[in-house]
Specification:
With 391 residues, the chain is an alpha/beta fold. Helix content is 42%, strand content 18%. The chain has a seven-stranded mixed sheet, sandwiched between helices. A five-stranded parallel sheet has the order 2-1-3-4-5, sandwiched between helices. Bound molecules: phenylalanine.
Amino acid sequence: MKPTFQLPRRGFLAVLATAIALATGCKPSGESGGGAAGTGTIKIGEFASLTGTEAAFGQSSHKGTQLAIEEINQSGGLLGRKLEHLTEDNRSTAGESATIVKKFISREKVVAVLGEVASGRSLEAGPICQAAGIPMVSPSSTNPKVTEIGDHVFRVCFIDPFQGKLLADFAKRTLKARKVAILSDVSAPYSVGLADFFRQRFIAEGGEVVVEQKYASKDKDFRAQLTAIKAAAPDAIFVPGYYTEAGLIVAQARQLGLAVPLFGGDGWEAPELIQIAGEALQGTYYSTHYSPEAKSTEVRSFVKAFQARFNGETPDAMAALGYDSAMVLADAIKRAGSTDGSKVRDALAATKDFPCVTGKTTLDASRNATKAAVIITVKDGKFSYLETVEP
Ligand code: PHE
Protein backbone atom coordinates (compact mmCIF):
# COMPACT_ATOMS: atom_id res chain seq x y z
CA MET A 1 0.00 0.00 0.00
CA LYS A 2 1.06 3.54 -0.66
CA PRO A 3 1.35 5.67 2.46
CA THR A 4 -1.76 7.76 3.06
CA PHE A 5 -1.72 11.15 1.47
CA GLN A 6 -0.51 13.94 3.65
CA LEU A 7 -1.13 17.53 2.80
CA PRO A 8 2.19 19.31 3.06
CA ARG A 9 2.33 21.79 5.86
CA ARG A 10 1.92 24.89 3.78
CA GLY A 11 -0.94 23.34 1.78
CA PHE A 12 -2.52 22.22 5.00
CA LEU A 13 -2.38 25.73 6.43
CA ALA A 14 -3.88 27.16 3.26
CA VAL A 15 -6.70 24.64 3.41
CA LEU A 16 -7.19 25.38 7.09
CA ALA A 17 -7.30 29.13 6.46
CA THR A 18 -9.82 28.52 3.70
CA ALA A 19 -11.92 26.32 5.97
CA ILE A 20 -11.93 28.99 8.66
CA ALA A 21 -12.75 31.67 6.12
CA LEU A 22 -15.64 29.61 4.79
CA ALA A 23 -16.94 28.80 8.25
CA THR A 24 -16.90 32.42 9.32
CA GLY A 25 -17.89 33.84 5.97
CA CYS A 26 -14.74 35.97 5.91
CA LYS A 27 -11.89 36.07 3.48
CA PRO A 28 -8.51 35.29 4.97
CA SER A 29 -7.03 38.68 5.84
CA GLY A 30 -4.42 40.43 3.77
CA GLU A 31 -5.54 39.01 0.44
CA SER A 32 -7.22 40.72 -2.38
CA GLY A 33 -8.10 37.75 -4.54
CA GLY A 34 -7.83 37.84 -8.27
CA GLY A 35 -8.71 41.37 -9.29
CA ALA A 36 -6.50 42.80 -12.02
CA ALA A 37 -5.33 45.56 -9.72
CA GLY A 38 -4.91 43.17 -6.79
CA THR A 39 -2.01 43.53 -4.43
CA GLY A 40 -2.34 40.40 -2.27
CA THR A 41 -1.58 36.86 -3.32
CA ILE A 42 -2.58 35.48 -6.70
CA LYS A 43 -4.94 32.62 -5.94
CA ILE A 44 -4.88 29.47 -8.03
CA GLY A 45 -7.51 26.80 -7.28
CA GLU A 46 -6.65 23.15 -7.87
CA PHE A 47 -9.34 20.47 -7.69
CA ALA A 48 -8.10 16.88 -7.53
CA SER A 49 -8.99 13.29 -6.61
CA LEU A 50 -6.82 13.08 -3.49
CA THR A 51 -8.87 10.17 -2.12
CA GLY A 52 -11.23 7.55 -3.60
CA THR A 53 -10.94 5.25 -6.62
CA GLU A 54 -8.59 7.52 -8.59
CA ALA A 55 -6.59 8.81 -5.62
CA ALA A 56 -3.29 7.99 -7.32
CA PHE A 57 -4.14 10.49 -10.08
CA GLY A 58 -4.91 13.37 -7.73
CA GLN A 59 -2.03 12.76 -5.36
CA SER A 60 0.52 12.62 -8.12
CA SER A 61 -0.84 15.53 -10.08
CA HIS A 62 -1.08 17.57 -6.89
CA LYS A 63 2.56 17.02 -6.02
CA GLY A 64 3.67 18.15 -9.47
CA THR A 65 1.46 21.24 -9.26
CA GLN A 66 2.72 22.04 -5.79
CA LEU A 67 6.37 21.73 -6.83
CA ALA A 68 5.81 24.17 -9.70
CA ILE A 69 4.08 26.73 -7.50
CA GLU A 70 6.78 26.48 -4.83
CA GLU A 71 9.48 27.00 -7.45
CA ILE A 72 7.67 30.05 -8.83
CA ASN A 73 7.28 31.54 -5.37
CA GLN A 74 10.92 30.85 -4.52
CA SER A 75 11.95 32.84 -7.55
CA GLY A 76 9.84 35.80 -6.49
CA GLY A 77 6.29 34.91 -7.59
CA LEU A 78 4.50 36.60 -10.47
CA LEU A 79 3.87 40.29 -11.15
CA GLY A 80 5.55 41.05 -7.83
CA ARG A 81 3.04 38.90 -5.94
CA LYS A 82 3.18 35.42 -4.42
CA LEU A 83 0.99 32.61 -5.69
CA GLU A 84 -1.44 31.07 -3.25
CA HIS A 85 -2.22 27.44 -4.06
CA LEU A 86 -5.64 26.27 -2.90
CA THR A 87 -6.26 22.53 -3.23
CA GLU A 88 -9.52 20.67 -2.64
CA ASP A 89 -10.28 16.96 -2.82
CA ASN A 90 -13.28 15.80 -4.88
CA ARG A 91 -12.89 12.28 -3.43
CA SER A 92 -13.14 10.81 -6.98
CA THR A 93 -16.85 11.45 -6.62
CA ALA A 94 -19.25 12.88 -9.21
CA GLY A 95 -20.69 16.27 -8.31
CA GLU A 96 -17.85 17.32 -5.99
CA SER A 97 -15.72 19.00 -8.65
CA ALA A 98 -18.52 21.37 -9.59
CA THR A 99 -19.09 22.34 -5.94
CA ILE A 100 -15.38 22.95 -5.35
CA VAL A 101 -14.88 25.05 -8.45
CA LYS A 102 -17.96 27.18 -7.72
CA LYS A 103 -16.54 27.90 -4.29
CA PHE A 104 -13.09 28.68 -5.71
CA ILE A 105 -14.60 31.23 -8.05
CA SER A 106 -17.29 32.88 -5.97
CA ARG A 107 -15.71 32.86 -2.51
CA GLU A 108 -12.00 32.63 -3.10
CA LYS A 109 -11.93 34.75 -6.25
CA VAL A 110 -9.28 32.54 -7.82
CA VAL A 111 -7.52 33.86 -10.90
CA ALA A 112 -7.50 30.45 -12.60
CA VAL A 113 -8.35 26.82 -11.98
CA LEU A 114 -6.04 23.79 -12.42
CA GLY A 115 -7.56 20.33 -12.89
CA GLU A 116 -8.45 17.58 -13.37
CA VAL A 117 -6.77 14.37 -14.41
CA ALA A 118 -9.94 12.40 -15.26
CA SER A 119 -11.89 13.77 -18.22
CA GLY A 120 -15.28 13.22 -16.57
CA ARG A 121 -14.36 15.57 -13.74
CA SER A 122 -12.88 18.21 -16.05
CA LEU A 123 -16.14 18.04 -18.02
CA GLU A 124 -17.99 18.76 -14.80
CA ALA A 125 -15.94 21.80 -13.77
CA GLY A 126 -15.21 23.29 -17.19
CA PRO A 127 -18.64 24.83 -17.86
CA ILE A 128 -18.50 26.64 -14.50
CA CYS A 129 -15.11 28.20 -15.29
CA GLN A 130 -16.26 29.04 -18.80
CA ALA A 131 -19.42 30.79 -17.58
CA ALA A 132 -17.45 32.78 -14.99
CA GLY A 133 -14.73 33.83 -17.43
CA ILE A 134 -12.06 32.09 -15.36
CA PRO A 135 -9.42 30.14 -17.28
CA MET A 136 -9.10 26.44 -16.50
CA VAL A 137 -6.08 24.34 -17.43
CA SER A 138 -6.43 20.58 -17.29
CA PRO A 139 -3.11 18.81 -16.86
CA SER A 140 -4.07 15.48 -18.35
CA SER A 141 -7.72 15.04 -19.38
CA THR A 142 -7.51 13.62 -22.88
CA ASN A 143 -11.15 13.42 -24.01
CA PRO A 144 -11.67 15.94 -26.87
CA LYS A 145 -14.92 17.26 -25.36
CA VAL A 146 -13.07 18.87 -22.44
CA THR A 147 -11.69 21.83 -24.37
CA GLU A 148 -14.78 21.95 -26.61
CA ILE A 149 -16.57 23.37 -23.55
CA GLY A 150 -15.38 26.82 -24.55
CA ASP A 151 -12.58 29.30 -25.06
CA HIS A 152 -11.55 29.41 -21.39
CA VAL A 153 -10.74 25.70 -21.11
CA PHE A 154 -7.22 24.51 -22.00
CA ARG A 155 -5.11 21.39 -21.57
CA VAL A 156 -1.38 20.72 -21.74
CA CYS A 157 -1.59 17.09 -22.96
CA PHE A 158 -2.41 15.23 -26.18
CA ILE A 159 -5.97 14.11 -26.89
CA ASP A 160 -7.60 10.70 -27.36
CA PRO A 161 -8.06 10.66 -31.15
CA PHE A 162 -4.23 10.49 -31.18
CA GLN A 163 -4.01 8.04 -28.29
CA GLY A 164 -6.71 5.75 -29.75
CA LYS A 165 -4.97 5.72 -33.11
CA LEU A 166 -1.52 4.98 -31.72
CA LEU A 167 -2.92 2.13 -29.64
CA ALA A 168 -4.68 0.66 -32.69
CA ASP A 169 -1.43 0.85 -34.64
CA PHE A 170 0.47 -0.66 -31.72
CA ALA A 171 -2.00 -3.57 -31.50
CA LYS A 172 -1.67 -4.25 -35.17
CA ARG A 173 2.07 -3.73 -35.68
CA THR A 174 3.69 -4.68 -32.40
CA LEU A 175 1.19 -7.14 -30.91
CA LYS A 176 0.37 -8.48 -34.39
CA ALA A 177 -3.27 -8.65 -33.35
CA ARG A 178 -5.94 -8.99 -36.01
CA LYS A 179 -8.87 -9.79 -33.71
CA VAL A 180 -9.27 -7.61 -30.63
CA ALA A 181 -11.73 -7.56 -27.72
CA ILE A 182 -12.69 -4.27 -26.02
CA LEU A 183 -13.71 -4.01 -22.36
CA SER A 184 -14.63 -0.41 -21.51
CA ASP A 185 -15.97 1.61 -18.59
CA VAL A 186 -19.38 3.07 -19.52
CA SER A 187 -19.29 5.43 -16.54
CA ALA A 188 -16.17 7.28 -17.73
CA PRO A 189 -16.31 9.59 -20.77
CA TYR A 190 -12.58 8.99 -21.12
CA SER A 191 -13.06 5.24 -21.54
CA VAL A 192 -16.01 5.49 -23.92
CA GLY A 193 -14.17 8.02 -26.09
CA LEU A 194 -10.89 6.12 -26.19
CA ALA A 195 -12.73 2.89 -27.13
CA ASP A 196 -14.40 4.77 -30.03
CA PHE A 197 -11.18 6.27 -31.39
CA PHE A 198 -9.38 2.94 -31.09
CA ARG A 199 -12.19 1.00 -32.82
CA GLN A 200 -12.39 3.43 -35.76
CA ARG A 201 -8.71 3.21 -36.49
CA PHE A 202 -8.31 -0.52 -35.86
CA ILE A 203 -11.17 -1.39 -38.22
CA ALA A 204 -10.00 1.11 -40.84
CA GLU A 205 -6.63 -0.65 -40.81
CA GLY A 206 -8.23 -4.03 -41.50
CA GLY A 207 -8.55 -5.28 -37.92
CA GLU A 208 -11.63 -6.83 -36.39
CA VAL A 209 -13.27 -6.12 -33.03
CA VAL A 210 -14.64 -9.57 -32.24
CA VAL A 211 -16.40 -8.74 -28.96
CA GLU A 212 -17.16 -5.66 -26.85
CA GLN A 213 -17.98 -5.86 -23.17
CA LYS A 214 -18.70 -3.12 -20.63
CA TYR A 215 -18.44 -2.35 -16.91
CA ALA A 216 -18.86 0.63 -14.61
CA SER A 217 -16.43 2.31 -12.21
CA LYS A 218 -16.21 0.56 -8.80
CA ASP A 219 -17.17 -2.85 -10.27
CA LYS A 220 -15.03 -5.60 -8.79
CA ASP A 221 -16.01 -8.77 -10.61
CA PHE A 222 -15.34 -8.89 -14.35
CA ARG A 223 -15.53 -12.64 -14.84
CA ALA A 224 -18.79 -12.65 -16.81
CA GLN A 225 -17.38 -10.16 -19.33
CA LEU A 226 -14.04 -11.95 -19.48
CA THR A 227 -15.73 -15.30 -20.05
CA ALA A 228 -17.60 -13.84 -23.04
CA ILE A 229 -14.30 -12.41 -24.28
CA LYS A 230 -12.56 -15.75 -23.93
CA ALA A 231 -15.27 -17.41 -26.03
CA ALA A 232 -14.55 -14.98 -28.88
CA ALA A 233 -10.85 -15.96 -28.89
CA PRO A 234 -9.27 -12.52 -29.50
CA ASP A 235 -5.55 -12.02 -30.16
CA ALA A 236 -5.43 -9.19 -27.58
CA ILE A 237 -7.75 -7.36 -25.16
CA PHE A 238 -8.05 -3.58 -25.06
CA VAL A 239 -9.06 -2.14 -21.67
CA PRO A 240 -9.46 1.65 -21.94
CA GLY A 241 -10.17 2.29 -18.26
CA TYR A 242 -8.62 3.48 -15.01
CA TYR A 243 -6.05 1.53 -12.99
CA THR A 244 -8.30 0.34 -10.14
CA GLU A 245 -10.56 -1.65 -12.44
CA ALA A 246 -7.87 -2.36 -15.07
CA GLY A 247 -5.73 -4.05 -12.40
CA LEU A 248 -8.57 -6.34 -11.35
CA ILE A 249 -9.42 -7.07 -14.98
CA VAL A 250 -5.85 -8.14 -15.75
CA ALA A 251 -5.71 -10.35 -12.64
CA GLN A 252 -9.08 -12.00 -13.35
CA ALA A 253 -8.29 -12.49 -17.06
CA ARG A 254 -5.18 -14.48 -16.12
CA GLN A 255 -7.15 -16.50 -13.54
CA LEU A 256 -9.59 -17.43 -16.30
CA GLY A 257 -6.72 -18.67 -18.43
CA LEU A 258 -6.68 -15.76 -20.88
CA ALA A 259 -3.01 -15.63 -21.85
CA VAL A 260 -3.22 -13.02 -24.66
CA PRO A 261 -1.78 -9.49 -24.21
CA LEU A 262 -3.93 -6.88 -22.46
CA PHE A 263 -3.34 -3.20 -23.11
CA GLY A 264 -4.75 0.18 -22.18
CA GLY A 265 -4.21 3.93 -22.32
CA ASP A 266 -2.92 6.49 -19.83
CA GLY A 267 -5.69 5.58 -17.35
CA TRP A 268 -3.58 2.55 -16.37
CA GLU A 269 -0.77 4.69 -15.03
CA ALA A 270 -0.40 4.35 -11.26
CA PRO A 271 1.91 2.38 -8.96
CA GLU A 272 -1.30 0.83 -7.61
CA LEU A 273 -1.72 -1.09 -10.86
CA ILE A 274 1.23 -3.27 -9.87
CA GLN A 275 -0.04 -3.65 -6.31
CA ILE A 276 -3.43 -4.79 -7.60
CA ALA A 277 -2.42 -7.11 -10.43
CA GLY A 278 1.16 -8.15 -9.56
CA GLU A 279 2.60 -10.90 -11.72
CA ALA A 280 -0.49 -11.01 -13.91
CA LEU A 281 0.79 -7.80 -15.54
CA GLN A 282 3.50 -9.65 -17.44
CA GLY A 283 2.64 -9.11 -21.12
CA THR A 284 0.59 -5.96 -20.67
CA TYR A 285 1.14 -2.50 -22.16
CA TYR A 286 -0.17 1.02 -21.90
CA SER A 287 0.38 4.38 -23.52
CA THR A 288 1.08 7.51 -21.53
CA HIS A 289 2.53 11.02 -21.68
CA TYR A 290 6.10 10.74 -20.49
CA SER A 291 8.73 8.46 -19.09
CA PRO A 292 10.99 9.50 -16.22
CA GLU A 293 13.73 7.60 -18.08
CA ALA A 294 13.73 10.19 -20.90
CA LYS A 295 17.02 12.03 -21.38
CA SER A 296 15.84 15.60 -22.03
CA THR A 297 17.15 18.40 -19.78
CA GLU A 298 13.60 19.25 -18.71
CA VAL A 299 12.83 15.67 -17.64
CA ARG A 300 16.12 15.27 -15.85
CA SER A 301 15.90 18.45 -13.82
CA PHE A 302 12.21 17.83 -13.04
CA VAL A 303 12.87 14.27 -11.80
CA LYS A 304 15.74 15.54 -9.66
CA ALA A 305 13.72 18.38 -8.10
CA PHE A 306 10.70 16.14 -7.54
CA GLN A 307 12.75 13.44 -5.83
CA ALA A 308 14.44 16.01 -3.61
CA ARG A 309 11.05 17.45 -2.62
CA PHE A 310 9.13 14.18 -2.15
CA ASN A 311 11.38 11.66 -0.40
CA GLY A 312 12.96 10.17 -3.48
CA GLU A 313 9.67 9.39 -5.19
CA THR A 314 9.92 9.10 -8.98
CA PRO A 315 7.34 11.33 -10.67
CA ASP A 316 4.86 9.69 -13.06
CA ALA A 317 2.96 11.25 -15.97
CA MET A 318 0.32 12.89 -13.78
CA ALA A 319 3.03 14.55 -11.70
CA ALA A 320 4.82 15.79 -14.82
CA LEU A 321 1.61 17.14 -16.34
CA GLY A 322 0.49 18.70 -13.05
CA TYR A 323 3.81 20.54 -12.98
CA ASP A 324 3.46 21.54 -16.63
CA SER A 325 -0.10 22.83 -16.16
CA ALA A 326 1.00 25.20 -13.40
CA MET A 327 4.08 26.37 -15.32
CA VAL A 328 2.09 27.05 -18.50
CA LEU A 329 -0.47 29.02 -16.48
CA ALA A 330 2.25 31.00 -14.68
CA ASP A 331 3.91 31.84 -17.98
CA ALA A 332 0.57 33.11 -19.29
CA ILE A 333 -0.06 35.30 -16.22
CA LYS A 334 3.42 36.75 -16.64
CA ARG A 335 2.92 37.50 -20.32
CA ALA A 336 -0.56 38.90 -19.64
CA GLY A 337 0.97 41.25 -17.05
CA SER A 338 -2.37 40.91 -15.30
CA THR A 339 -4.58 38.48 -13.43
CA ASP A 340 -7.68 39.52 -15.34
CA GLY A 341 -9.49 36.38 -16.58
CA SER A 342 -9.80 37.41 -20.21
CA LYS A 343 -6.20 38.66 -20.42
CA VAL A 344 -4.87 35.45 -18.89
CA ARG A 345 -7.09 33.49 -21.28
CA ASP A 346 -5.67 35.34 -24.28
CA ALA A 347 -2.13 34.77 -23.07
CA LEU A 348 -2.80 31.06 -22.54
CA ALA A 349 -4.20 30.83 -26.07
CA ALA A 350 -0.94 32.34 -27.36
CA THR A 351 1.27 29.74 -25.61
CA LYS A 352 3.94 28.74 -28.09
CA ASP A 353 6.92 26.36 -27.77
CA PHE A 354 6.86 26.53 -23.99
CA PRO A 355 9.47 24.07 -22.63
CA CYS A 356 7.37 21.63 -20.61
CA VAL A 357 8.61 18.45 -18.94
CA THR A 358 6.33 16.49 -21.28
CA GLY A 359 7.69 18.25 -24.37
CA LYS A 360 7.48 21.62 -26.11
CA THR A 361 3.98 22.95 -25.70
CA THR A 362 2.03 25.01 -28.18
CA LEU A 363 -1.68 25.47 -27.54
CA ASP A 364 -3.58 25.27 -30.82
CA ALA A 365 -6.81 27.00 -31.88
CA SER A 366 -8.78 24.27 -30.05
CA ARG A 367 -6.73 24.89 -26.87
CA ASN A 368 -5.07 21.47 -27.06
CA ALA A 369 -1.43 20.43 -27.14
CA THR A 370 0.21 18.08 -29.62
CA LYS A 371 2.82 15.86 -28.02
CA ALA A 372 4.52 12.51 -28.31
CA ALA A 373 3.27 9.51 -26.33
CA VAL A 374 5.26 6.68 -24.82
CA ILE A 375 4.39 3.03 -24.51
CA ILE A 376 5.19 1.29 -21.27
CA THR A 377 5.23 -2.43 -20.59
CA VAL A 378 5.43 -4.29 -17.31
CA LYS A 379 8.45 -6.52 -16.81
CA ASP A 380 9.19 -8.43 -13.62
CA GLY A 381 6.84 -6.27 -11.60
CA LYS A 382 8.25 -2.97 -12.88
CA PHE A 383 7.10 -0.42 -15.44
CA SER A 384 9.51 -0.33 -18.31
CA TYR A 385 9.76 2.10 -21.25
CA LEU A 386 9.15 0.44 -24.62
CA GLU A 387 8.87 3.12 -27.32
CA THR A 388 8.00 6.71 -28.14
CA VAL A 389 5.27 7.52 -30.64
CA GLU A 390 5.58 10.91 -32.32
CA PRO A 391 2.37 12.74 -33.24
N1 PHE B 1 -6.35 10.89 -19.68
C1 PHE B 1 -7.17 10.38 -18.61
C2 PHE B 1 -8.56 11.00 -18.73
O1 PHE B 1 -8.75 11.86 -19.52
C3 PHE B 1 -6.59 10.68 -17.27
C4 PHE B 1 -5.15 10.31 -17.04
C5 PHE B 1 -4.11 11.12 -17.51
C6 PHE B 1 -4.79 9.19 -16.35
C7 PHE B 1 -2.76 10.79 -17.29
C8 PHE B 1 -3.47 8.86 -16.13
C9 PHE B 1 -2.43 9.65 -16.64
O2 PHE B 1 -9.47 10.68 -18.08
